[in-house]
Specification:
The structure holds 2 protein chains of 2 kinds.
Chain A (H helix, E strand, L loop, with lengths): L3 E7 L2 E7 L5 H8 L18 E4 L2 E4 L12 E3 L1 H4 L7 H8 L9 H14 L5 H7 L11 H12 L4 H4 L2
Helix pairs in contact in A: 3-6
Chain B lengths: L4 E3 L4 H11 L4 E3 L5 H7 L6 E4 L8 E4 L2 E5 L4 H6 L4 H8 L4 H6 L2 H4 L8 H8 L3 E6 L2 E6 L4 E3 L2 E2 L6 E8 L4 E8 L7 E12 L2 E10 L6 E2 L1 H7 L6 H14 L10 H30 L1
Parallel strand pairs in B: 1-3, 2-3
Antiparallel strand pairs in B: 4-5, 5-10, 6-7, 6-10, 8-9, 11-12, 12-13, 13-14
């Protein structure tokens, strides 16, 4: 019994971490690797603040033992932020004032990122459905939905740019 | 609080072997959406946890008139399956996208009431569950699987490995009524699957969630509509029977009093939905 070494790909770079059994991916990313965009919210799967992408699909890092992502691609907000400037989605959140305190923002953006990858032109209903698991206590959600709509119109998803 | 050991078997025989070796103290987890919150909060402090995520139990397979749904098929995978509309409708009304990417169909059968919306749809569809253990496998009707609040027919050395659903074309309706529009446990969930012959209902299954210690069928309500053409009066009788038969719980979402009344409202609306769909189909074919 005891710790294991887990290797996975984080934002395109292979990382190796030593984890105790069932340490959550959220704890590993935030506390071991310093990826502080991965927020610790409810630790119950109820708030969406810890959302990251595993193999491109949004999952809740607080409900995922780190051992489970061995060999897989993990993407956090840090991974999609360019060295200079911002990802178009981040810019869209800025432009629409899609945040106030900012705590839910990384989770919101990661789900939105995955949504636009799957569906570059989502309807308002589809945006609401995608974000249904992400709680924001500041904005009242309207500016967040507007940000995602704005990003879709600006062609934030690679799929949209190709057209 | 730390878990002593996390076991991730790569096949079903390996999983069964681990369960046999470590006994009933081994906590079995699939998608983790029920188990991880308990571990994170220190409510569950298991020495050993076994994940079924990589045991090869995911995926949906069509075998003739039957859909075989592997126990660790995610709700996202279920949502993409077009064979049984009622199941899609249930998955669509559940949780959030990231949770649907993690939560499993098999795990849903272990969700304490008022959770477990897929289980309600599966009950209306007359699903069967396959249980596997060291002595082989057995198939149990889902109607006999749940035995009480958080108790079931699974033996200590068995795992639930597959849910099978007949794909026979039926008239179905699914309504989940919650305190908010999405990502919420149910005040009440209603799933209905009917067979119709010569305009009359020849077979009926009405399943309710959050209206008992586990998903339940309401036999009196079903009997009220069999042999009828779903006239308004018959629908009222069925709704009234469901209200009498259900055994709702009181929790932070709703009281037993309120849930019982909502059972009546939503059984009626689900049956009305089927009438509307049937009329539309008849009009289309005319």
């Amino acid at each position: 019994m005891g710790s294991k070494i887990v290797t996975f790909v984080l934002g395109g770079r292979e990382v190796e971490v030593m984890v105790k059994p069932m340490t959550t991916l959220q704890a590993v990313l935030r506390y071991q690797l310093g990826y502080t965009a991965v927020k610790e919210g409810c630790r119950q799967g109820g708030c969406g603040s810890c959302t990251v992408l595993v193999e491109g699909e949004p999952v809740l890092a607080c409900l995922l033992p780190a051992e489970d992502v061995a060999g897989q691609q993990v993407t956090t907000l840090e991974s999609i932020t360019p060295v200079d400037g911002l990802d178009p989605l981040q810019q869209a959140f800025l432009d629409a004032s899609g945040f106030q305190c900012g705590y839910c923002t990384p989770g919101m953006i990661m789900v939105s990122k995955a949504l636009l990858e799957h569906n570059p032109r989502p309807t308002r209903e589809e945006i609401l459905d995608a974000l249904a698991g992400n709680i924001c206590r500041c904005t009242g959600y309207e500016p967040i939905v507007a940000a995602v709509e704005g990003a879709a119109q600006a062609g934030a998803a690679p799929g949209a740019q190709r057209r | 609080m730390t878990v002593g050991e996390y076991l991730v078997p790569r096949s079903l025989p390996e999983a069964i072997d681990l369960l046999e070796r470590h006994g009933p103290e081994l906590l079995v987890m699939a998608g983790g959406t029920l188990t991880m919150p308990l571990i994170n909060e220190g409510i569950a402090m298991p020495d050993r946890v076994m994940s079924l995520r990589h045991a090869g139990l995911g995926g949906i397979e069509r075998r003739g008139d039957v859909l075989g749904i592997g126990a660790t098929t995610t709700l996202t995978q279920l949502l993409a399956e077009e064979g049984v509309p009622l199941l899609r409708e249930a998955a669509r009304n559940m949780a959030s996208w990231p949770i649907r990417n993690m939560a499993t169909v098999g795990g849903n059968l272990f969700t304490p009431s008022p959770g477990g919306d897929v289980a309600v749809a599966l009950l209306a569809l007359d699903a069967q569950v396959r249980l596997a253990g060291p002595r082989g496998t057995r198939v149990v009707p889902l109607a006999d699987f749940h035995t009480g609040f958080m108790t079931n027919a699974l033996a200590a050395d068995e795992l639930l490995v597959e849910i099978s659903v007949p794909t026979t074309v039926r008239q179905t309706a699914f309504i989940k009524f919650g305190r908010k529009h999405a990502n919420t446990p149910a005040v009440v969930t209603v799933a209905v699957a009917l067979e119709r012959r010569d305009g009359q209902i020849s077979a009926a299954r009405i399943a309710l969630g959050a209206a008992g210690p586990h998903p339940i069928r309401v036999a009196g309500a079903e009997a009220a509509i069999v042999g009828s053409a779903l006239e308004a009066g018959v629908i009222e009788q069925a709704a009234a029977a469901a209200v009498r038969e259900c055994r709702p719980l009181t929790d932070a979402l709703a009281t037993e009093w309120y849930r019982r009344r909502m059972v009546g409202v939503f059984v009626r609306r689900a049956l009305e939905l089927i009438v509307e769909q049937h009329r539309a189909r008849v009009a289309e074919s005319a």
